[in-house]
Q: What sequence folds into this?
């Protein structure tokens, strides 16, 4: 471990992302070695030893589905008990488990819906903040569109194939070219779909109160809508679309501007019985329409070559 940390510091690596999927039992059931031996305890011990000396910072990603909220809470307890937190460079963030591959065409039975994930995320963020494992959530700033929609941005896989997005790297049929010269022709039609996509060009995104902060979220779900499965895999809207009011309330409460009693369970939530404060959300139909338009435009451009 010491040599690895020395090498990373020499390479000017200052922050490392680690994925831990819940407490020891939950994590080791999902992320074990090929021998079957668990990895949780070693990860926690190594992170503690490094963070204590402030040699590196850690961003701990916790993937959330319908099975592991309790285990995620237990993980926060473990990290806090170890004395880990923002004060020594360890922070936690949460991400939804999504089904984005054709191999999972049956969908993800444990994947949460967009609204259910947003509610779960809010609860976990509040607990993580209380335990010193997360700074107050900030509203995102528009930092540009996903690099996948930029003309000169590619993911290069070990065999030299070029992909626009890392969600397609497991499928050779989805590559758009190769760095190995002419061994694989460039897929101009798919590239055109990526370059033509813009959240400002469809009515649901352009009328949304979260835009431009979310930058349209995930372009993959528009371009390859036929590839993903289930609501979590096909719909692009980020959790902020469904919990913006809750996020703002968490910040205001932490700063002493409001108290729990100020939250009106009928009027305050982002998602209400009659409407959403952030505007209409994307549906399977609306995303499908954008996908069809991108497909048609790319086919027309390809035919005109």
A:
């Amino acid at each position: 471990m010491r040599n690895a940390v020395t090498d990373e510091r020499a390479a000017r690596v200052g922050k490392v992302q680690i994925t831990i999927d819940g407490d020891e039992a939950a994590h080791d059931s999902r992320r074990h070695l090929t021998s079957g031996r668990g990895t949780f305890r070693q990860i926690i011990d190594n992170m503690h030893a490094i963070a204590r000396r402030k040699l590196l910072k850690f961003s701990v990603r916790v993937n959330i589905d319908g099975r592991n909220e309790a285990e995620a809470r237990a993980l926060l307890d473990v990290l806090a008990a170890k004395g880990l937190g923002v004060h020594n460079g360890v922070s936690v963030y949460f991400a939804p488990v999504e089904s984005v591959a054709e191999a999972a065409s049956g969908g993800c039975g444990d994947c949460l819906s967009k609204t259910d994930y947003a509610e779960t995320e809010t609860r976990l963020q509040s607990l993580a903040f209380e335990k010193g494992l997360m700074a107050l959530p900030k509203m995102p700033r528009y930092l540009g569109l996903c690099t996948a929609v930029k003309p000169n941005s590619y993911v290069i896989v070990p065999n030299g194939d070029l992909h626009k997005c890392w969600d397609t790297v497991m499928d050779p049929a989805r590559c758009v070219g190769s760095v190995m010269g002419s061994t694989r022709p460039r897929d101009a039609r798919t590239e055109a779909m990526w370059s033509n996509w813009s959240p400002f060009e469809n009515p649901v995104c352009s009328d949304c109160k979260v835009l431009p902060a979310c930058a349209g979220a995930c372009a993959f779900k528009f371009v390859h809508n036929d590839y993903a499965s289930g609501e979590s895999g096909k719909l692009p809207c980020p959790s902020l679309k469904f919990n913006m009011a809750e996020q703002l309330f968490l910040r205001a409460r932490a700063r002493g501007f409001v108290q729990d009693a100020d939250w009106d369970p009928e009027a305050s939530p982002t998602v209400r019985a009659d409407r959403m404060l952030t505007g209409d959300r994307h549906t399977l139909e609306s995303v499908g329409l954008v996908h069809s338009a991108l497909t048609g435009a790319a086919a027309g451009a390809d035919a005109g070559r």
